[in-house]
Amino acid sequence: MxxxxxxxxxxxxxxxxxxxxxxxxxxxxxxLALPIYAAQSPVAVYLPAIYAEHYGMPLTxxxxxxxxxxxxxxxxxxxxxxxxxxxxxxxxxxRTWIIAGALVYAVAAAMLFFPPAGFSAPLxxxxxxxxxxxxxxxxxxxxxxxxxxxxxxDERTRIATYGTVAxxxxxxxxxxxxxxxxxxxxxxxxxxxxxxxLVVIGGLVVTxxxxxxxxxxxxxxxxxxxRIPFGRAVRLIVGERLLLRVxxxxxxxxxxxxxxxxxxxxxxxxxxxxxxxxxxLFLFQFVFGIAAGPIWMRIATRLGKHRTAIxxxxxxxxINLGLLLVTPARFPLLLALTLAQGLAQGSGNLMLRSMVADxxxxxxxxxxxxxxxxxxxxxxxxxxxxxxxxxxIALPLVAWLGFAPTGPNTPAAxxxxxxVFALGPALAHLISAACxxxxxxxxxxxxxxxRALAA
Length: 455
Hints:
Elements: H1 2-7, H2 10-17, H3 23-30, H4 33-38, H5 40-53, H6 59-84, H7 93-113, H8 121-148, H9 153-184, H10 189-214, H11 230-239, H12 241-271, H13 278-303, H14 305-322, H15 331-344, H16 347-367, H17 372-400, H18 411-436, H19 443-453
Helix pairs in contact: 3-9, 3-10, 5-12, 6-8, 6-17, 7-8, 7-10, 8-16, 8-17, 9-10, 9-13, 9-16, 12-13, 12-16, 12-17, 12-18, 13-14, 13-15, 14-15, 14-16, 14-18, 16-17, 16-19, 17-18
């Protein structure tokens, strides 16, 4: 039966297996990561703090809004993945969704980053609802498209590396702006929001045509891609155990990263007493994060993806436990740990993204159906669920421990902030590594699958 299914894909897979984009084309395709990930840091790090301090929204209300938006995402992301793997559109199966999502994304970004007078919690909820919908409509088919460019195990890591580096550059850009604003106009929260909006919307206008024209969108769903009910699609995902392990690891690593991101402004300003470093420290981390992608790519060619991801996650555990030794008088230690955090931060995200495409190959061999977009929709969902978990748990938790964003804070409240800031990410990264221990789909097994598909 596997041979019969493989014959459905043979011509297409032979072409993909030898396809290697030039660095220029791959850079153009990866540039779309800039507007996608440029909003990730502002939404997770700065937006809650700005809306709490400048617009007076309670932390509990903000946590609830983000949590509800992620519950909505649990429905929207798989639905987009379910529809995205059915048939082909006139502009291409991936391009159509990306273009439509870009329109929704731009409108919602304008509402979030250029809020009108009297901006309220309900309007924030609506803006986030549309924002995450547009984000999903772009990101899910974009990730699936990236996984379809090549069928080679290491080439997929190269493609994912370009995307990770592009995302890191976008985060670097949006971190430079608030750092400059903090030095010139530190209390101008609307200016910070506007600078984020210009990067997101302006980046979308520039990179969208570059990415859509860099690579052909000629993927066609195989005949085995019968239209299945949504409930059956859910059962299909639940039955794919390797996919569940990858997305569980991704959920954990994203939660850990974004607990740190959601609290770093409060930690640096209130605990360390260095508000002028709140943006600069985050910028410092991502400067080294840009260099980390190629390093982890080289490690992966020797160790394999899942072993490299485990190594990176264990390094993250050690770094976050080291934060327990940080005091206001030990600012150089915080700088050193932040540098290490930057070098280690992309390891899990990079490997896990590439592993989803490998799991999709295994599924195609066994069933004859191409569910790449569906699988990436679930992968995208877990990342956003991790963001919701981070904001929806970390902010109410530090508030429960007595921390107030506008102060004053007792020593006990500041100690509680430190514990959540350090131990929350450490535990999450440890869980992420445990999910990948003994992962069976390594380079040798993937090569066997590719040979069977191309037989």
